[in-house]
């Protein structure tokens, strides 16, 4: 006891000191971000550009030199941003490359301070960030908080806690033949990362690749969607202010606006490309990246299976199911689009979700208390209705629709009420094509094997959710579904665990962001081997295989292989004796003389 007592006291004292140290708030400076053009003097949304925007017809957006921005929920005009030319994009990338050479030498302490400044600003300005996201994409404030704020804060917190650990050199086993060596993997910045991101989460889709790129020592140029440029350019100001506060070089992070031509120029200029968007565009980016042989991470479409077994809590799961469909105002990210419910509880599940959906009201998210906002993309509601009509024509049954609140005449086409469809099957487009909208198609299954078969009958493979009263059963079903992420008795919880990689298979893309895998994907992974006991033990080529190679050179190699990798200890010892014998003979004076002759 006398021996352990001092150790216990020291351990307890260390724990107390660590706890007290945690109570001391870190010294994190505040930053000022100019929001004068999005807020009026009273802190409310400015209505300076309040006229209704009517999109031009008969010409493609790519022909425009400006990216026009408007609120999808009201069609009120927000302003415009330039569509950058290829030469302008290349100049921006060149500036980012210069900044990266400086930032690559920055300390992890400086990088962590950058993250803390961002985290502080986000926490203190949640309402502003969510309002801007809501205005630009039509989502509700609650959906913006869940999808934009919480996920980004979680990523920052994970990087602060574990980021440096996973970027430090990682020592590996050197194997039997290299016992005298030290082996490690080093993680160096790639250079300039390019990101082309979608509109559905304008804040998080910018911060997600930016945080990983900057913390790993890279610079990054982000092309924001033409459907979310207004919010993206404001969020860029937050990043600029935080970088300036830590003395980072200018142009380390850049946000650019434009159309397809702008994105193509970015792909041809950077050292790695991260793309979040549709499979069709993802394939075009791959073709362009192949010309430059640069690595690509693709997070593409999703049509997640949502499986409900007969022993699940129907009332509980129904609430999660509706949230899974309606999250972000039907702008699903890893959204559930195929619902498979066991036949024993099919009727009760349909009844329960119908009751919930019937109470949901869609409307301008900042104009009243609405459960769901607008559809961001123009003419998308027409496509959604076509998917529903195709299902109805092939035998599906319309169950219920939510309601639409008071909306302006110019924005009628921007809203699609939440819709429940039953008796669907896989011949319908609704069960095969990505809907990206608030539609819940529900299909029966009778066995677990059938549920797995149905879930895998899709060209997409992003995620799945499985619900059962038996966690073991739910895990068994999920393990057989060919997808990148799976939630057991929950939905989309994998994305809130930022230590986990995120991504899919098949038409949902490949590569991962988030987690250790996503962080290291921003790095040049370099294998390094060095002498363990330098300069006392060095690599020396054995005489039998030195040039000119001796007559017994192959015999030596054969014995060496068996000595290192033989199947049992006796074979290895016998081979080792032969290796030593050959070396002894090779080093004898008589043999040396024969070699000289």
Brief sketch in words of this structure:
The protein has 597 residues and is an alpha/beta fold. 43% of the residues lie in helices and 17% in strands. Keywords: Oxidoreductase.
Strand content of the residues, in percent? 15-25%
Main β-sheet: number of strands, strand sense, barrel status? 7 strands, mixed
Distinct helical segment count: 19
SSE-based structural type: alpha/beta
Question: Gap between N and C termini, in Å?
Answer: 74 Å
The total domain count is 3
Average pLDDT taken over every residue: 91
What's the number of extended β-strand segments? 22
Please identify which CATH superfamily of the largest domain we are dealing with. Aldehyde Dehydrogenase, Chain A, domain 1
Shape, per Cα inertia axes: globular
Strand order of the main beta sheet, please?
A: 13-15-16-11-10-18-19
- Low-pLDDT ranges: none
CATH class of the largest domain: Alpha Beta
Oligomer: single chain
CATH topology of the largest domain: Aldehyde Dehydrogenase, Chain A, domain 1
Q: Calculate Rg over CA atoms.
A: 30 Å
Keywords: Oxidoreductase
Family: Belongs to the aldehyde dehydrogenase family.
GO molecular function: oxidoreductase activity, acting on the aldehyde or oxo group of donors, NAD or NADP as acceptor
């Amino acid at each position: 006891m006398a021996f352990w007592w001092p150790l216990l006291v020291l351990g307890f004292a260390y724990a107390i000191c660590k706890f007290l140290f945690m109570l001391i708030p870190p010294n994190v400076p505040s930053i000022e971000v100019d929001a004068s053009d999005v807020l009026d003097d009273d802190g409310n949304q400015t209505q300076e550009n309040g006229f209704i925007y009517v999109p031009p017809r008969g010409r493609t957006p790519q022909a425009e030199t400006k990216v026009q921005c408007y609120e999808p929920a009201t069609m009120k005009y927000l302003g415009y941003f330039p569509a950058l030319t290829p030469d302008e994009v290349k100049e921006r990338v060149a500036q980012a490359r210069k900044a990266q050479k400086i930032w690559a030498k920055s300390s992890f302490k400086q990088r962590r301070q950058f993250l803390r400044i961002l985290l502080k600003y986000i926490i203190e300005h949640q309402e502003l960030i969510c309002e801007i996201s809501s205005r630009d994409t039509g989502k509700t404030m609650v959906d913006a908080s869940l999808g934009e704020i919480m996920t980004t804060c979680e990523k920052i917190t994970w990087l602060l806690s574990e980021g440096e650990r996973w970027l430090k050199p990682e020592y590996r086993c050197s194997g039997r033949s290299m016992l005298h060596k030290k082996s490690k993997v080093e993680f160096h910045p790639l250079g300039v990362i390019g990101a082309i991101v979608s509109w559905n989460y304008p804040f998080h889709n910018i911060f997600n690749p930016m945080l990983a790129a900057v913390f790993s020592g890279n610079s990054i140029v982000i092309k924001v969607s033409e459907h979310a440029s207004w919010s993206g350019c404001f969020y860029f100001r937050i990043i600029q202010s935080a970088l300036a506060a830590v003395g980072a070089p200018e142009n380390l992070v850049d946000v650019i606006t434009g159309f397809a031509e702008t994105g193509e120029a970015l792909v041809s200029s950077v050292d790695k490309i991260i793309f979040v968007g549709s499979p069709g565009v993802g394939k075009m980016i791959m073709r362009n990246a192949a010309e430059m042989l640069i690595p690509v991470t693709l997070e593409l479409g999703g049509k997640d299976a949502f499986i409900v077994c007969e022993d699940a809590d129907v009332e509980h799961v129904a609430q999660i199911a509706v949230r899974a469909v309606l999250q972000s105002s039907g702008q699903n990210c890893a959204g559930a689009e195929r619902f498979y419910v066991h036949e024993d509880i099919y009727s009760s599940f349909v009844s329960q979700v119908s009751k919930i959906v019937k109470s949901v009201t869609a409307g301008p998210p900042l104009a009243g208390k609405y459960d769901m906002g607008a559809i961001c993309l123009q003419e998308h509601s027409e496509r959604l209705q076509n998917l529903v009509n195709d299902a109805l024509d092939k035998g599906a049954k319309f169950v219920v629709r939510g309601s639409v609140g008071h909306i302006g005449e110019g924005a009628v086409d921007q809203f699609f009420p939440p819709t429940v469809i039953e008796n669907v099957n896989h011949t319908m487009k609704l069960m095969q094509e990505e809907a990206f909208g608030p539609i819940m198609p529900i299909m029966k299954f009778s066995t677990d094997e059938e549920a797995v078969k149905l879930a895998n009958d899709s060209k997409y493979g992003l995620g799945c959710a499985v619900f059962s009263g038996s966690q073991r059963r739910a895990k068994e079903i999920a393990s057989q579904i060919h997808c990148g992420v799976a939630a057991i008795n929950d939905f989309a919880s994998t994305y809130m665990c930022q230590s986990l990689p995120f991504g899919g298979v098949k038409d949902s893309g490949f590569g991962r962001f988030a987690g250790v895998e996503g962080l290291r994907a921003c790095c040049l992974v370099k294998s390094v081997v060095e002498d363990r006991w330098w300069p006392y033990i060095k690599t020396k080529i054995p005489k039998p295989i030195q040039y000119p190679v001796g007559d017994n050179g192959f015999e030596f190699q054969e014995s060496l292989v068996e000595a290192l990798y033989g199947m049992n200890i006796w074979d290895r010892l016998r081979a080792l004796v032969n290796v030593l014998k050959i070396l002894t003979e090779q080093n004898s004076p008589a043999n040396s003389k024969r070699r000289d002759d």
